[in-house]
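pasting for the record
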Amino acid sequence: METERTLIEYKSLRKVIGAKANLKELAETCVCLANAQGGMLYIGVEDEDKLPPEGQKISQKMVNDILSRLRSLTDSVGLGDAIIETHENGSQYFHFKILPSSRTIATTSSGKILLRIQDKCYPITGEEVTRLSAEKNAFQWELVELKAFKINQIPPKNITAFANEIRSSERVKDSVKQKDDFEIIEHYNLAINGCLTNLGALWLGTEAIRSRISYPITVQYIVRDKYGEKIRKENWHDYDLNPKDLIMEIEEQATELKYFYEFPQGLFRKRIRQYSPEVIRELLINAIAHKKYTISGDIFIEVYPDRVEITNPGNLPIGISSSNILHRTHRRNPHMIRIFHDMGLMEGEGSGYDLIYEIDSKDSKPFPIVNSGFDYTKVTQGSEILDEEVVFLLEYISQHYQLSQKQFIALGVIARKKKILGTELIKQLQLSEDERLRSYVGKLEDDQIIVSRGVRKGKQYLINPELLKSSRLNIKPSLKTIEPHRLIALIEDDLKTYPESTIREIQKRIPDVDFKDIQKAIYKMVKSGVLLHSPDKTYRKYWLA
């Protein structure tokens, strides 16, 4: 039995019958799925082990009563016929399909509107209801049939090329590869009932067919100087290429995205691309896959001396923001995303930004900045290497330790910051719960790659000094990681030369040390009687006792 994911829910039979039954909660789940892309609901299966309890029997009357009650508790929710299944252990369960509400907003009978985002249901209120209504057309755009274009009007070579590419992919199941060409086309929803869909027109159509889509993919590539003046422009407005060929063509023509930095590494020179090809590929595919195809507008790729900005029509889907994009996913064009994934062009759902963050961490580049407006989403990726020493350090660590993707992301943040509070690290990693940080830094601490100081909200993380020593990379020491007792000695020396100084004045003379660290050390010195201070509260001055 499949594991629970975005489009599949497992519920115990106790949820629908008996003293603990809660059909209203189940109705909310149905509304959540209907307002997204639909899904499948399995009733009578325990969520922990994905098995029906031994001896469990399901009657047709019970199933009919449950579906009837769910229909009365929801509005604009389509429920498919329920099928009773018998598991290998002899117990029974049933399942039914929840159809996506393609044109209307699904609600509970009490008027609640909910939406499925990843594996959770979220209530939708106020302005978000308007956005959800606007999204409805975008959600189903891929599957709209083009009655004027039959599959037999498509050049056979286009169909054969697509099918062969699917068959050659390691990500596609053998059962799909064994289908004939037309079965593969239907499997990926490129044709329905012998007619091309919008998605099929993009992937299989000719230039003439693609031009008949309301808003096909059009791209502008613009290079600007440091003053914002346009110095080069390319555009793709002729509808001649399918999405994959278009991406390959852009990557080939985008010469300015292939520049690199070069710096010494012993007897050799190390090269790092200004923009990693994997990062550019992910950002391009995101722009095409998450474009809202129900509004007009080009995809813009604007290259500046220090950054690239990629803008696509359509704002971020409901529930996704710049502060949670690393962990939440919500597919606007799920069938297109599936094709990109199966062809090996992109990472799996929800892992694209993980890959970008990992590469940016290893290359010591700024993380992408996501800005979403009413009808656009812009992603800005900087080209600057923030710290060359971090590049060599992470390369050394990758050669000597086996770390996961998220551990490298956390390590990259810690290395570039030199020292960081746990609360700030949680914010940088877009985490919502403190306990989740353990999965990012636990192994790093266990392997003594990083060390921590302090406890609870005052806990700080930094690269283990012993690791820096053993790496022999000649990394310059930084006052950012100075130990508390050494900082106290440094402040004493400073106040011997500059007595009656404020904390701000002290911090200006040792700018590499964080202001809060200096403040904490001075308060400790006052408490222990090492320092005295003036009675002022705003501009308090300190001197040695």
